[in-house]
Amino acid sequence: MTDAPFTLPKTNSSLWSIRPFHRQYLMRQANNLYDFFEAPSINPKGGFYELDEDGKPLGGDNAIRQIHVTTRMVHCAAIGSLIGRPGSDELVDHGMRYIWEKHRDQKHGGYVWSLDDNGYKDSGKQAYGHAFVLLAASSAKIAGHPLADQMIADVTKVINERFWDEKRGAVRDEFNQDWSTLLPYRGQNANMHMTEALMAAFEATGNRDYLTKAERIADLIIAKNAVPMDHRVAEHFDDNWVLDKNYEGNEMFRPSGTTPGHWLEWSRLLFQLWALGDKRLSWMTDAARNLFRQAVDLGWDEKHGGFFYTLDWDNKPIMREKLWWPVSEAIAAAAVLSTHDRDDYFQIWYRKLWDYAENHVIDHGRGGWLSELTEDLRPTSRLFVGKPDIYHALQACLIPLYPATGTLTSAIIQGDHTVKQAH
């Protein structure tokens, strides 16, 4: 006799996110992440350190600063400022000045990928990095930083003139430093994060061109590619946007196969984009639901728990490691979907995902979240060294606390306004 699948009794099916204890739990977890990452990450020479498992700086006296690390910390510090965490404004300023004075290429324009105290280490110009510059600047603008408008204008000009492909409705991926060489690779990951950044820029500035570009990217990556492939997100394309199923790239940023964590990330972004676009593109909500369900059905390890990092095109695991960011994105997606869709399925998974994170991913002894687990959930470091950043886990903690009507930074402002009206 097999056990019947677990379902929530009707008396226990209300959203956790409205329950006072759960809201306290989420804010406590967010505060723990800030405690672990903020002060130890500050590099007195500029920018931010990456941290080891114990929260100690990596890289020594001449640590390399990668642009996604700098910009994500600015974004998260801006969130800290908006929710009222003391010390956050100084972190925003510390990071914004490093982006503007160091990552920004004053000779050729754009923002380089990495540098140390002696200069550029990787001077390439990636759409992925520029997306996070736009996100950081947009979040900093909402938090009131004086450099934000200038940075938004600068990076927007670069995105429009260098990366944006008007014919395709997406961004190109990577140039060399002086823009003379464009790599033939096209990828969904840079476009996914550009979608996130474009939404944030739209909310920060009111310029609808950002929203239009985000909708066009979603149409290409999801409506034209993922939906016909049974709601599996294709990662890698050639310069004509023809799917390359045999692509083998960087295991961290461009792994082969397909990545269920990105299906989950898109499921959240689509609902946010639908809400920002006056709820007129109904295809997005249907796609979001199906992306979430497919990620669970194909990517979740029923034996041990956790999402496999990558799958092949026969839906078999390639990399069986369980990383921190897919479960973070799954939590955020389940929270957003539960708000808009009262199907108990999404709330059941929201709770199951937090159970998994609490019992296996959150490092209760040292702080932060474990970045990588083996298939059977033992800590490992094959792909990642240390605890890479605060960004994914922090958003998993905070997105459930605020209205699911757009990006987190603007949702915090909207939530504060709602509280003021109630009083």
Automatic annotation (TrEMBL):
Q: Which SUPFAM superfamilies match?
A: Six-hairpin glycosidases (SSF48208)
Q: Does the record carry Isomerase as a key word? A: yes
Specify whether Membrane is a keyword of the entry.
Answer: no
Q: Which keywords accompany this UniProt record?
A: Isomerase
Q: Name one GO biological process term.
A: carbohydrate metabolic process
What would be one Pfam family of this protein? GlcNAc_2-epim
Instruction: Name one molecular function that GO assigns to this entry.
Output: isomerase activity
Q: Which family does it belong to?
A: Belongs to the N-acylglucosamine 2-epimerase family.
Protein's name according to its UniProt entry: Mannose-6-phosphate isomerase
